[in-house]
Design goal:
Blueprint: E1 14-18, E2 21-26, E3 39-44, H1 46-56, E4 61-67, H2 71-82, E5 85-92, E6 101-108, E7 111-117, H3 133-137, E8 142-145, H4 160-170, E9 191-193, E10 199-201
Parallel strand pairs: 1-4, 1-8, 2-6, 4-5
Antiparallel strand pairs: 2-3, 6-7, 9-10
Length: about 220
């Protein structure tokens, strides 16, 4: 097994790019969504949840993303900050986009589903010009996860986001010295890619492994 080495001397341990939304998890279990009446609100989006976990483990973290200019967007930003995550590159949308919502349905201890509302979601509107390349350069590890931002907003731009999208597909997009993680949670592809495309087997067993979510197509993900 090959081990990932991280660049020493960088001020941030971990930076994530991707989905920022609200999860509304059912309080009632063993019933379908039609019969569920109450939910508890959480910050959602796999990259956000991973970053929160990293921060709670004591790592220095930051997030790159976009939130709506509404109460939910402010809740997300405040929650990240309360968990000691830098939000200096969390951009507030000014176009009237909304916060994406995800409702969980818990039918049994082994059966659940998610109902997602992603139309005109603010996190999908992050543009390459809003991504701070200097923040990425300060990170030992970069995670690109979830289904946002939109792939077409980064494709062919020749600036930071284009490289990020390319990385999720072929492992060659990021700058040398910035390890990239690719772990498909559905089990289709379980590989860890370093710049240059070298594969590290069984990252889930690696103590430094970080989960990547979004499927084989990377940033475009599943909607």
């Amino acid at each position: 097994m090959s081990y990932v080495s991280f660049a020493a001397g960088k001020p941030l341990d971990f930076v994530a790019v991707g989905r920022l939304c609200i999860d509304l998890n059912a309080n009632e279990i063993n019933r379908p969504m039609e019969e569920t009446m109450t939910f508890t609100k959480y910050v959602g989006g796999s990259p956000a949840n991973i970053t929160i976990g990293m921060s709670r483990l004591g790592l220095r973290t930051a997030f790159i993303g976009k939130v709506a200019d509404d109460q939910m967007g402010r809740f997300i930003t405040d929650y990240l900050e309360r968990n000691r995550i830098s939000t200096e590159n969390v951009v507030t949308d000014r176009t009237g986009a909304v916060t994406g919502l995800a409702f969980t349905e818990i039918k049994s201890p082994s059966e659940c589903s998610i109902l997602m509302y992603r139309d005109n979601a603010a996190d999908l509107l992050l543009s390459p010009l809003e991504v701070r390349e200097d923040l990425i350069a300060e990170a030992k590890l970069l995670l690109i996860s979830g289904d946002g931002p939109r792939e077409e907003s980064f494709e062919g731009s020749g600036i930071p986001g284009a490289g990020l999208c390319q990385e999720t597909r072929d492992g060659r997009g990021l700058r040398p010295g910035l390890p990239a993680v690719h772990l498909d949670l559905q089990g289709r592809n379980r590989s860890l890619l370093q710049p240059g495309g070298r594969e590290v087997r069984h990252p889930a067993r690696h103590p430094r492994g970080v989960r990547y979510d979004g499927g084989a197509r990377g940033q475009s993900g599943r909607r």
